[in-house]
Amino acid sequence: MTHPTTPPTTQKMPKDRGPHPSAVQQGRIAYRKRQAVRSVLLAALSTAVLGTLLGFLITGAPGWDRVRQAFFNGEMARESFAPILQGLWLNIRLFVVCALCALALGLLIATMRTLRGPVFFPVRALATGYTYSFRGLPLIIVIYLFAFGIPGLRLQGTPSVTVLGGAAIVITYGAYLAEVFRAGIESVHPSQVAAARSLGLSYRQAMRHVVLPQAVRRSAPPLLNDTVAMQKDVGLISLAGPIDAIRAAQIDQMGTANFTPYVVAGVLFVLLALPLIGITDYVTLRAARRQNAGT
Amino acid sequence: MLLECTGVRKTFGPAVVLDGLDLAVDEHEVVALIGASGSGKSTLLRCVNLLTEIDDGTITLDGEDITDPRIDPDRVRQKIGLVFQSYNLFPHMTVLDNITLAPVRVFRKPAADAREQAREWLARVGLLNHAGSYPDRLSGGQQQRVAIVRALVNSPRLLLLDEVTSALDPELVGEVLTMIRDLKGEGVTMVLATHEMGFARQVADRVAFLDNGRVLEQGPPEQVLGDPVEARTRQFLARIIEAGRL
Which residues of chain B have a CB within 8 Å of the CB of A201? Predict the structure, then answer.
């Protein structure tokens, strides 16, 4: 809980205090200004030195010309750009659907693990077994099992490979997200449950109205971080066959034995992740600030 | 008797916190529990509210054995209000939502009625302008007053107060104590664990001194605080006076 007497952390600049800072304060301000200029210059200089060194090291390497041809070929980049972008559209759609489904699945599993009472034992056991096994299982294997194993059963109405691959991603990530939610649930102090129960709320009502809302809020930064990881792992669906950005790059690469399309796809993936990373940083910072403010 | 504790025993591992404690509280009575830290005051309150399970003995509320394992603890808690030392408001809810949560979810009151009732209470304790604020915008004293209102809107038969001023800055203690004094005037039955001896003297009908998990001495405040019979009580009060809290 905050103390009302705690002063705000932001310090007022001296110029707000009064029209005429004293001579001592003027000296301090001038000194800080000189220090700031010096810091900027020093940072710029050290960055330039390191950049130049790295540049010399890479371009001066004996094999640089061949690497440049194979990985940074401008013509190849232009040619492969359109099909890769088209493939990326699949990644984006798949990511949005998978992220939402995995978040819902994670919350469901985490909630299942909080259920009490002997009747729910199988539900708890199932949820626990799921998070234990799928956090250990490599995503690639799950994709193979789903995309090639399930169609192999030759059942009526088997969904497309894209859907099956997406399901593999959702199920793998759901297990991680469930644990993030569970950590959030456990981070809510027991006194909150005690307060809710003392008001006559049942265990389930206390969970739903008091614990879960706080847990979800606290889980937001790590959840977002996991979705950033998921965004690039969606590209693993290319292993199952659908033409996403990575698969499109691979097709181009196979025809020409040039790796530039992969670099193009990589750059596009990085650009795609930037907004989500930005949001994650913002949410994390805000959460940290709120935590420091105390509850 | 509204509340009757008989031979209540509670242990935490090797530590015996309540050791065959007996205590009875009549309707409209205010009982102050005093005693050193670890004498079992808070544990007793948590046991009465069924937040902690007792190891032996019986607690009855309105003649009903609430320590019977077949009883529905949620139904018992609906009749007992508990206010914590650290307020324990729900930080993700506004003041108004904190207060209306139980009336709406537990007592199935229409939301509009519950809000109206909560506003009336907030107006009474001078916090109506904070109805839409979140708890972290309030001072400790304000938060504690909201916590008391939150416990009272359910019209409990019994209100338990667990060192409700211990976490407050000295200048904020007064506003909470004034509120409790007003509640006594309205006939609210209260059991309060406290370190504020001066306040216990003013507001309590009876003071019970807890020592080693039992009520060692109880009686009117003037007697227990002014002229205690037991040597242990005298010792305890002497230490309190030394600390400048009486």
Answer: 74, 101-102, 105-106
Asked if residue B242 lies in contact with residue B226, where contact means CB atoms within 8 angstroms, the answer is no
Question: Chain B contacts of A205, Cβ < 8 Å?
Answer: 105-106
Nearest to B5 by CA among B24, B32, B20: B24
Q: What is the pLDDT of residues A235-273, one digit of tens each?
A: 898 888 888 888 888 888 888 888 888 999 999 999 999
Interface pTM (ipTM) of the complex? 0.91
Strands in B3-12's sheet, in edge-to-edge order, are: B15-25, B3-12, B56-61, B64-65
The pLDDT tens digits for A68-89 are 888 998 888 888 888 899 989 9
pTM of the full structure? 0.81
Three-state SS across B142-175?
Answer: HHHHHHHHHHHCCCCCEEEEECCCCCCCHHHHHH
Closest approach of chain B CAs to the CA of A127, in angstroms? Answer: 28
Alpha carbon distance B234, B236 (integer Å): 5
Token pair of A293 as six digits:
């403010």
8 Å CB contact between B237 and B246: yes
**B101 interaction partners in chain A (CB closer than 8 Å):** 196, 199, 201, 209-210
Q: Which CATH architecture has domain A87-242?
A: Orthogonal Bundle (1.10)
Spans of all domains in chain A: 87-242
Contact by Cβ (8 Å): B31, B41: no
